[in-house]
Amino acid sequence: MKLKFAPIKFQAALAAGGVSLMAFNYLQFAIPHGEGLIKISDLLWSQMSPSQVILNAILVLIMLGSTAANLILTVVFLRGMASWLITKNQFNSFIENPLTNITIFVPIASLSMTANVVWGPFAFYLPGLSIQTLMWGSLLFYMILWVSLFFLEFKVAKSWFINPMDASKLNFVWLLDVFAFGLVSLAGTGIASMAENSAIASFASVTSLFVLVFGVFLFVAKLSFLIYIQIKNAQLPDKPILPAFFLVIPITCLLGLSFYRIMGHFQNIFTFDASVISFFLITASYVITIGWGIFTVYLLFDYLRRDFFKSQFAPTQWGMV
């Protein structure tokens, strides 16, 4: 039986990409190698201890499987989305529903993650591939995501004004657009930091800064309002929604890392010392992340202990990955 497409299904590809990048980032910083991103040829197995061989081999296999899952799921979901978009009135009716239209940002977030997967984990297995050969194509892909992100943001915002909803029903899933802003900014700052072509790097950095400023504004405004609504309601949302509290964690990390990258790029261009502000931004983002993570675990402790493993799957659980 053919399953009906829904934008939120892209969370599966997004989660697979996240697992792949976690393994890649560990290898990137733990294994000595030359400038740029690590390649599989940089792993000198004969010089590793037995425990290092086992650990790194497991990570390489995890990264291979999750990279393949991300790319395969992305292709499958893109086909489903194409059919969904060309079906008459299906997209418009979805966007006009203020309770569910926020999930339209999941494909944008997932495709931004896939771009990072291609640059890192996918290229890891191709030692002869120069990342610079991908920069023009990456910039074009990034701009498609950039335009789509703002188009959808304004489209969804318009629906909230035309079809007002009960504010008490809002929950942390409402931050999915901010999550997409964080991942698009990460893709843009990634291009800015990797590209040797100054025109590509400058264009990506300027457009990324615009995404970052807009994303931070949305994050502060929405998070403040959601905390106010949560306090006013004086009770937690339904159990399927509870894992959405964890969504604040990746958003904070993404915005902090993107600012860190862009400050490094501007430091090279304008020759000023950005080390202090860069250190502050990245430290602040991770302090907020750790603090929110501890608070969320405490807040949801009963749910995690009693109901998480017994409850039916909910799309919000992907946010925990």
From TrEMBL:
<feature type="transmembrane region" description="Helical">
    <location>
        <begin position="134"/>
        <end position="152"/>
    </location>
</feature>
<feature type="transmembrane region" description="Helical">
    <location>
        <begin position="53"/>
        <end position="78"/>
    </location>
</feature>
<feature type="transmembrane region" description="Helical">
    <location>
        <begin position="275"/>
        <end position="301"/>
    </location>
</feature>
<keyword id="KW-0472">Membrane</keyword>
<keyword id="KW-0812">Transmembrane</keyword>
<feature type="transmembrane region" description="Helical">
    <location>
        <begin position="172"/>
        <end position="194"/>
    </location>
</feature>
<keyword id="KW-1133">Transmembrane helix</keyword>
<feature type="transmembrane region" description="Helical">
    <location>
        <begin position="200"/>
        <end position="229"/>
    </location>
</feature>
<dbReference type="InterPro" id="IPR059133">
    <property type="entry name" value="TsoY-like"/>
</dbReference>
<feature type="transmembrane region" description="Helical">
    <location>
        <begin position="99"/>
        <end position="122"/>
    </location>
</feature>
<feature type="transmembrane region" description="Helical">
    <location>
        <begin position="241"/>
        <end position="263"/>
    </location>
</feature>
<protein>
    <submittedName>
        <fullName>Uncharacterized protein</fullName>
    </submittedName>
</protein>
<feature type="transmembrane region" description="Helical">
    <location>
        <begin position="12"/>
        <end position="33"/>
    </location>
</feature>
<dbReference type="InterPro" id="IPR038665">
    <property type="entry name" value="Voltage-dep_anion_channel_sf"/>
</dbReference>
